[in-house]
Amino acid sequence: MLTSANLAAILPFPDIDPIAFSLGPLSIHWYGLAYVAGILLGWFYARRLVDNGKLWLNDAAPMTRAHLDDFILWVAFGIVLGGRIGYILFYDLDPVLANPIRAIQVWNGGMSFHGGLIGTTIAMILFANRNKIPMWSLFDIVAAVAPIGLFFGRIANFINGELWGRTADVPWAMVFCSPHVIAAHEGVCPAGLDPRHPSQLYEAGIEGIVLFSVLFILTRWALALKKPGTVSGVFVIGYAFSRIFVEFFRQPDEQLGYLLGTNWLTMGMVLSLPMVAVGLWAIIRARHVAARQAA
Q: What b-and-e string marks burial along 223-244, b requiring 16 or more CB atoms within 10 Å of the CB?
């Protein structure tokens, strides 16, 4: 229950214009800049990993900077197409079937991480086969840099005032009701006047900063890239547990709500659970392969 003391402690939502700047009739959104920043910084970090032969099996990276330069376009298409198609299939199918033009209206729902992961995986498999690159090593290098993109993506969600959390009375709770959000919802504040968890920032911190730090330690100090598949497995498990944890604070998508008649189970949890099994399989497989090679 909210008291006057609670309300006084609530942080105001910083109403940042979702449009970063305009070039004539062209509007550049923070959301688009977040994707660009995540991909470019990830590409830069991946090149640094490739340059350090000591991190890799046999002290030589199985790919070159030129491979990464070519791959950046592939991964961009995988992220964007997979993310959008995934969102439609997992979260927004009925509205899109009723109004197909909604499929290209990215401001109606946006992107799905799980769809983007599938799209990126397909792009990696195709690129690795075409360029004769060890597939698991490519998986690992993308996994090592993926938290960078997750961090910027969640910050963009926060700027857009979307994917907010459940109602809360914690001192850092925010009321996600800004003029541009109201305008996008036919003059009605979709979150009411209830203060909510800034769950986008929770995700930016856990999925972005914490997960990147764990993978940095694994690649730089534990030399996990020498066992292809290990970094990928840890990333998948780390993201799954991070997402499941934050889902307890995040408001479910309104068109789906909670699943199976519960007041806690969400689609994000359901999609993340299989990732734990996949990640464990990848780690176990990597250890078995490494053991056979050492025998």
A: ebbbbbbbbbbbbbbbbbbbbb
Q: How many residues in total does the chain contain?
A: 295
Q: Are 146 and 42 in contact (CB under 8 A)?
A: yes
Number of Cβ atoms within 10 Å of the Cβ of 274 = 12
| Residue ranges of E strands in the chain | 11-12, 19-23, 26-29, 174-175
Q: What is the 3-state secondary structure (H, E, C) of 86-111?
A: HHHHHHCHHHHHHCHHHHHCCCCCCC
What whole-number distance in Å separates Cα of residue 224 and Cα of residue 204? Answer: 24
- Global model pTM greater than 0.90: no
Tokens of 183: 């305008």
5: Cβ–Cβ under 8 A, 6 or more apart, which residues? none
Q: pLDDT tens-digit profile of 231-240?
A: 999 999 999 9
The span from the CA of 82 to the CA of 67, in Å, is 22
> How many CA atoms are closer than 13 Å to the CA of 255, on its beta-carbon side?
12
For the stretch 134-150, pLDDT in tens is 999 999 999 999 999 99
Look at residue 154 and give its three-state secondary structure. Answer: helix
**Binding residue positions:** 154
